[in-house]
Amino acid sequence: MNPLQPPDSHHLSAASGWLGLGRYVEANEELEKISQENVAHPDVMEVLWHIYARCGQWEICLDIASAVIKIDPQRPFGWTHRSFALYEMKRTQEAFDLLMPVAMQFPNVWRVPYALSIYCAQLGRIIECQLWLQKALSADRDVVKRTAMIDPNLKPLWLSLSGKNVMKNLIASKGPVIFPQNPATGSLLTLASKRAP
To answer: Is the bond leading into 7 cis (omega within 30 degrees of zero)?
Structure first.
């Protein structure tokens, strides 16, 4: 997909800026200035998705992300954000089922395995959650560590792993992350990780 050209690229940039400031009305007004031929451009649709997400309009977000997948299936945004909209609509299993088949398509995009780890945590599939989280850590260790530490969606994982010790391990780790497989049995699951060069 070709990048937007001025003046549409300027309107998109302004809309992104307004969105970053939490000014959704102004962001939408900038998007409305984009030419009719470019309103369905994936970059425009991504900003539009975020506007509707901030308003909790998950059905619309689902439609937008699905459209992005049709327009540009090589763009991870459509896949991850379609599943996120489903998750917000309490359709967690469906979110997992639709994202998991494309995980191998985006091996360096940490958001894909990270989202899958969240869905597994919420579905009570803790071992699978650990494996997806490790894949996310392999893709971008620093970002995933910072994100996972504060993400309430991973609470089932942390609770199942006795929380604080695992969190300390995750924070301090530069090598493999060791997750207890089952607090009752004490067996361990050690997952190797790649360090960033």
So the answer is: yes
Digit-coded pLDDT (tens) for 38-65: 999 999 999 999 999 999 999 999 999 9
Torsion of CA 72, 75, 78, 80, to 10 degrees: 160
Burial 84-114 (b: 16+ CB within 10 A, else e): bbbbbeebbeebbebbbebbeebeebbbbbb
pTM, 2 dp: 0.82
CA distance 72 to 82: 13
47 and 67 Cβ atoms separated by less than 8 Å = no
Q: What sign does the dihedral 115-116-117-122 (CA atoms) show?
A: positive
